[in-house]
Structure formats: structure tokens, C-alpha cells
Design brief:
Largest sheet of chain B: none
Structural class of chain A: alpha/beta
Oligomer: heterodimer
Mean pLDDT of chain A: 90
Radius of gyration of chain B: 20 Å
Shape of chain A: elongated
Number of helices of chain B: 12
Order of helices and strands of chain B: HHHHHHHHHHHH
Number of strands of chain B: 0
Number of helices of chain A: 3
Distance between the termini of chain A: 42 Å
Low-confidence stretches of chain A: none
Largest interface: A-B, 23 and 27 residues
Distance between the termini of chain B: 33 Å
Mean pLDDT of chain B: 89
Radius of gyration of chain A: 18 Å
Structural class of chain B: mainly alpha
Low-confidence stretches of chain B: 1-31
């Protein structure tokens, strides 16, 4: 095996990860697709780079946009042919959302997801991203995107989005 | 009628003669194979119910429910696409060809999912009876010996758990609501009950897949389904109907392509655009 080649391929993969960290989620642009756990893997060889993505929800309409955003971001950093593949296993979970992304979600007025292993999540206390109160309640199971539910705060009276534990 | 599969059959014969094993050729290429029919059954349940739920766009009883119904529909549509992509790999057609250019006799969905929306109690009853079955089915399929089926089922399961929480919540809210909502919820359950037997009746070809560990044994799901249902109905103050005539259970149901008249009307709307403008894209 040619070590120079391997090193170059690794360097390319690392460059690609950095570029992907700059690709915002089209529906929640305060966080990147890497922070959301949508990018599973990056592998480069001399011939090509393969980026593996996983959908948050099966019917997420943003997946096509994400793929095209990935292609245009990577075209700026590498001239190797790019292949984007989709992996389902293991299924994406909101537990994959990075801690830093949770802070960014809260700062943007979206309550970050609770522990996804608790299925009956709507019975847990959700903290209001505006005033920090936990006296909140669900308005509707679904919200502005597939990954969010609608909540309201009983203290500051503001409605807010809750990123669903999934 | 021209048989589009004749050439495929010839290919199988050729590849078998060239040393490929006949069993591999059959499971991959035989368009009549039971696994293809089974995957189409899974795809069509999701696709047809997604289309029904999509009919609520802009007409939901309240804004939140308009969004909820269509979001559930969107999940199901995404799942249908995963199943159809797999079915297409088996028989050589694309997702779109399978969705838009099959006739009602080619669809393998359960009869319950094609039933009309009617009032919101009917929509919720259909959804809950199906969701409660779907979640049990997918939990079984997540351990299927067919790796592709297992991975799609595991993905779908995370979404469908959420669906059944919502639909059971509505059954309880409407059942244990006003006198009017209770009456309508019970009437909706009673009217759809005759379509529930089919959910637990395997088709003739399904048996070999169950024995092979590929398909879920739907007969075995009946007990757990009924137990879950009884607990929800108890909270909802609804009664479980007595079993009487069950539609589609004697070898002539959705899995055999024998549908109620509602499916053709649904397909006419769903398939009109791609049939009028073949190859149209946004």
C-alpha cells in the first residue's frame, strides 16, 4: 500500500468533514448537517469520495436539498468524483444531535430533544427556550417540520417548537 | 396481453445454463416471486394510506390536525418509497412506475387503508386500527432474515411508534369526549371492524416467507393487537365490536388484488398527472 496515497486520501476526507460542517440544515439553518447526525461517514480513495447520509425521517423532504447542498459545498474543496449514498441502519435518532447543536437550537427558540429512549416523551418536562420554565405543554404532535412538535409555555405564554425525541 | 416478463424468463434460463444457480435467479428475477408481492404489500399499505391522509391537506378540522394528518402521511410516503425502491430492484421497475402505472388489481394493500376519509372519527378509527397493527408488524419485521426488510422496518418503526401514540390519543379524546364524539367514534370503529380480520390473515404465498423468517407471522399479532386495543378502548369508554363477517379473509382481499371500489377512485386521482404527462418533472 502506498502510504503517501493513504495520507492524501485521509487529508481529503478531513477537508471534506470540515466543508460538511459548514452545510446548514435547510429547515433548521442554525445547525449543520454534521451536528444533526445526518452525515454518517466520509471515505476517500484515489478515484472518488463517498459521503454516507442518513435521513432523519423517511419522508423528510429536505433530503434532496441536503444532497445537492453537499455536492456544491464539496465541489469547492475537492475535484475527486463524489458519490452520495444513503444508509438506514442504524436508524437516525435525535440522540445523535451534538451537544453544541442543542445549545444552538435553544438559542434559536427551539427546545432541544429529550432522551429518545423514553417513548412517551410528551409526559416529560420540556424547558421553555424563552424563559427556562418547565411549566410547558404540548399544543400539537407535529409542527413546522417533520422533526418538531408545537409546545407552549404557561409562564411566559410563548408558543415554541420542540425538536421531537426520536 | 403482452407479457413483459417473457424476456426476463428467457434471461433466467440463459443465466442458469451459464452456471448461475436457479434459486438465485428465481428470487432475484422472478416477477411473480412471493417476496416481491410481500414487499409490494408493505409498500402499498403505506402509499395508499399516505394518499388518503394527503386528502386532508387544507381541510383538517383544526390547523394542528391538518398538519398532523399530513405529517403522518409524509412519513408513510417516505416509507412507501423505501419499500417501492426495494420492490423495483427485484422486478426492474422504478418507484414511479410501480406507484403510477399499476392498476388496482396489481395493488397489494389491505382493504382498510383504502377506505374513504369520511368524517374525522372515521379517519382516526382507520388510522388507529392500522397503526396499532403496523407498529407490531414492523417490530417483527425489524428482525427479518431479509436484511433489507429488517433495515427499512427498523427505520419505519421509530416513526410509527409516534403515529400510534397520536391516533390512540385521539381515539381516547373522542371516545371519552362529548356524547356526539363518543357516538361517532364508536360508529366509525363498528363500520371499519370488518376490515380488521384481513390484517391477521396471511396470503397463500406469505406462509413460506413466514416459515423462512422473512415475513412477520400476522396471525400471531392478533392477540397483542387486541390486548393493546382493549386497553385504549377501556380508557376511551368504547366497546370492542363482536367479530362477524370479515372482508377479504378468504383468499379474495387486498393482498390478492381484490379491492373495494374506493381504490380505483383513489388511484384515478393519484395517477392522473403522470399518466397524462408521462415523464413530467417539477
Amino acid at each position: 500500500m502506498n502510504e503517501d496515497r493513504t495520507t492524501r486520501a485521509d487529508e481529503t476526507a478531513s477537508t471534506i468533514w470540515k466543508a460538511l460542517a459548514g452545510v446548514a440544515d435547510p429547515e433548521i439553518p442554525v445547525v449543520s448537517i454534521v451536528e444533526l447526525g445526518i452525515v454518517r461517514d466520509v471515505r476517500c480513495s484515489d478515484d472518488e469520495c463517498v459521503v454516507t447520509l442518513t435521513p432523519t425521517y423517511s419522508g423528510c423532504p429536505a433530503m434532496r436539498v441536503i444532497e445537492s447542498d453537499v455536492r456544491s459545498a464539496l465541489a469547492r474543496v475537492t475535484d475527486r468524483p463524489l458519490r452520495v449514498v444513503t444508509a438506514l441502519t442504524p436508524p437516525w435518532s435525535s440522540d445523535a444531535v451534538a451537544p453544541e447543536a442543542r445549545r444552538k437550537l435553544a438559542a434559536a427558540g427551539i427546545a432541544p430533544p429529550g432522551d429518545a429512549s423514553r417513548i412517551q416523551f410528551h409526559r416529560e418536562a420540556v424547558r421553555c427556550p424563552n424563559c427556562g420554565s418547565t411549566r410547558t405543554g404540548e399544543i400539537a404532535r407535529f409542527g413546522s417540520t417533520a422533526c418538531k412538535a408545537q409546545y407552549r409555555c404557561r409562564d411566559c405564554l410563548e408558543p415554541f417548537d420542540y425538536f421531537k425525541p426520536h | 396481453m403482452a407479457n413483459p416478463h417473457v424476456e426476463l424468463t428467457a434471461d433466467i434460463a440463459t443465466s442458469a445454463a451459464e452456471g448461475a444457480t436457479a434459486t438465485t435467479a428465481r428470487s432475484i428475477l422472478d416477477p411473480q416471486s412471493s417476496i416481491l408481492q410481500y414487499v409490494l404489500h408493505l409498500a402499498d399499505n403505506d402509499l395508499i394510506l399516505a394518499q388518503r391522509l394527503g386528502e386532508w391537506v387544507g381541510k383538517g378540522p383544526v390547523l394542528e390536525e391538518d398538519i398532523a394528518s399530513t405529517n403522518v402521511g409524509l412519513d408513510l410516503l417516505g416509507q412507501a418509497r423505501l419499500w417501492l425502491a426495494y420492490a423495483g430492484e427485484i422486478d426492474g421497475r422504478s418507484e414511479d412506475q410501480l406507484a403510477y402505472f399499476r392498476e388496482s388489481v396489481d395493488f397489494r394493500n389491505l382493504l382498510i387503508v383504502e377506505q374513504p376519509n369520511d368524517d374525522y372519527a372515521d379517519t382516526i378509527a382507520r388510522q388507529y386500527l392500522f397503526d396499532q397493527w403496523h407498529v407490531l408488524l414492523l417490530a417483527e419485521l425489524a428482525t427479518s432474515r431479509d436484511g433489507r426488510i429488517a433495515s427499512i422496518a427498523a427505520k419505519a418503526l421509530t416513526e410509527v411508534r409516534y403515529h400510534v401514540e397520536r391516533s390512540s390519543g385521539w381515539v381516547i379524546r373522542l371516545g371519552d369526549g362529548t356524547e356526539l364524539s363518543h357516538r361517532r367514534m364508536q360508529a366509525a370503529i363498528d363500520a371499519l371492524w370488518m376490515y380488521t380480520g384481513e390484517m391477521f390473515t396471511p396470503g397463500a404465498d406469505e406462509r413460506e416467507l413466514i416459515d423462512a423468517g422473512i415475513a412477520a407471522d400476522v396471525e400471531a399479532l392478533h392477540g397483542p393487537w387486541l390486548a393493546d386495543l382493549r386497553s385504549v378502548f377501556a380508557e376511551a369508554t368504547l366497546s370492542v365490536p363482536d367479530d362477524a363477517w370479515m372482508q377479504g379473509t378468504r383468499g379474495r382481499g387486498g393482498k390478492q388484488g381484490v379491492h373495494t371500489e374506493h381504490l380505483s377512485h383513489l388511484l384515478a386521482e393519484m395517477q392522473a398527472l403522470p399518466r397524462t404527462y408521462p415523464g413530467a418533472v417539477w
